[in-house]
Amino acid sequence: MAAGATMYDSLQGGIQPSMASGQPESNRGSFVEDLWSSVCSPQALHAQVLQNLHDAVIVTDQAGRIKLWNRGAEAIYGYSADEAVGQHIGLVYLPEDVPLRESLIIEPLLAKGEHELEFRARHRSGARLVVNLSLSLLRDDSGNPIGIIGVSTDITARRRLDEQLQRHQAELAHVARLATLGEMATGLAHELNQPLAAIVNYTGGCAARLRSGTWSPDELLAAIEEAGRQAERAGEILRRVRNFVRKDQPRRTPLSVNEAVAEALRFVAGETRDRAVRVSMRPAEPPPWTVADHIQIEQVLLNLIRNGFEAMESVAAARRELAVEVRTGDRTVEVAVNDTGVGLPPGPSEQVFTAFYTTKPQGLGMGLSISRSIIEAHGGRLWAVPRPEGGTSFRFVLPAFVRNSDDPD
Asked: Poorest-confidence range of 58-62, 366-370, 390-394?
């Protein structure tokens, strides 16, 4: 074939001798079309297209018996057409998913006429697959359903890569949490010291009264109850620390955004006092919810709050204010962390989210970068804008979740 020529040019060139005896040049195209139609009927063309698709095309009857199994299905699932045709489609299901066929596939397909889902499947070797499955009803000339057409694309490798990236992100986030906790150690020690000191004072007072013999049951009971409350307060501080640094797989559940902000502010209560920052919170009403990993969202909030604290270190104590506001939007929840600090560094605001970018002598430059990756992994967005009155507003949005009355808290 000459350079630049197409398959059709070659085909036309190959039949020119047969047209030499009086066949007009202008009729050459129609001659080729007639020849094409005689050699390859529409039915044969459709059959070839189906057979040569890389995606699996499977047709089943109403009972689930396989009627068509193309080469793409052979490649993805490992069974030849001779082996698969006539078998039940459960051949490629995981055993535990066979009972779910009605609810996962048949019911939504009958309701809408078509259905798309990500589906776990089984290769002939027993290996597990993940496929993107598009289904539609096969109908007779009267429009009655007589079977199902399924087209599946193997996305197993893509999902494995996604899982590896998620594990890597979780590892990186855990390291960042440990670093954050190390930076907060002084404030946490101070916060923990207060209830421990109170417990020592109350129990010491009780012991002194008992030794002196000048005690009343009511006085001792009040002191012991207060010591118990302080012990609970110390236990709550330790619980927050333990939960924050534990190395669990990310787990997304319904999360009250108002409560997540309040919990993060409780975590930095000691640091707030040490830095002489006035902190306020403006919750949204009614309380908005999202679906998220609680610890990771708390990590983002702590990063943004502590970033605001550090931005206000060089500001006069009287001007150090940090406000956290929760707002609801159109199917979203927005959180804004506003400080009165020195503002964003010169240059594009996006640079602060670049990995290893930092303006702090001891900073790693990972907090904001990891925070953005966490928010984006949850289907949201994180950005920063300068405030007209001075300082910076870090904001993020997450998809809203509408809770049912019977959802667990």
From this structure: 366-370
CB 119, CB 154: distance < 8 Å: no
For the chain, the maximum distance between any two Cα atoms, rounded to a whole number of angstroms, is 133
Cis peptide before 286 (omega within 30 of 0): yes
How far are the Cα atoms of 109, 327, 399 from residue 321, in angstroms, in the given order?
A: 56, 19, 28
pLDDT tens digits, 382-402? 999 999 888 999 999 999 998
CATH topology of domain 252-409: Heat Shock Protein 90 (3.30.565)
Return d(Cα 300, Cα 375) in angstroms, integer.
8
Instruction: Please tell me the predicted confidence (pLDDT) of residue 190.
Output: 63
The full set of domain ranges for the chain reads 47-154, 161-249, 252-409
Tell me which amino acid residue 325 is.
Answer: E
pLDDT of 302 above 60:
yes
Angle at 90 between CA 84 and CA 91, to 5 degrees: 40
In the numeric block, the tokens 């096969």 are attached to 138
Q: What is the pLDDT of residue 8?
A: 40
Higher-scoring residue by pLDDT: 45, 336: 336
Q: Which residues contact 271 (CB under 8 A, 6 or more apart)?
A: 184, 186, 187, 188, 306, 309
Token pair for 283: 């919750």
Q: Which residue has the higher pLDDT, 172 or 251?
A: 251
Identity of the residue numbered 184: M
Give the helix ranges, DSSP H, for 120-216: 156-183, 185-212
Identify the bridge partners of residue 69 per DSSP, sorted by sequence position. Answer: 58
What is the Cα–Cα distance from 10 to 403, expressed in whole angstroms?
65
CATH architecture type of domain 47-154: 2-Layer Sandwich (3.30)
pLDDT of residue 9: 45
pLDDT at 70 over 90: yes
CB atoms within 10 A of CB 60: 20
C-alpha torsion sign, points 171, 177, 180, 186: negative
Which three-class secondary structure string do you get for 72-126? HHHHHHCCCHHHHCCCEHHHHCCHHHHHHHHHHHHHHHHHHCEEEEEEEEECCCC
User: Minimal CA–CA distance to 321: which of 225, 271, 234, 391?
Assistant: 391
Q: pLDDT at position 54, please?
A: 87
Residue 329 token pair: 């939007």
- pTM of the shown model: 0.52
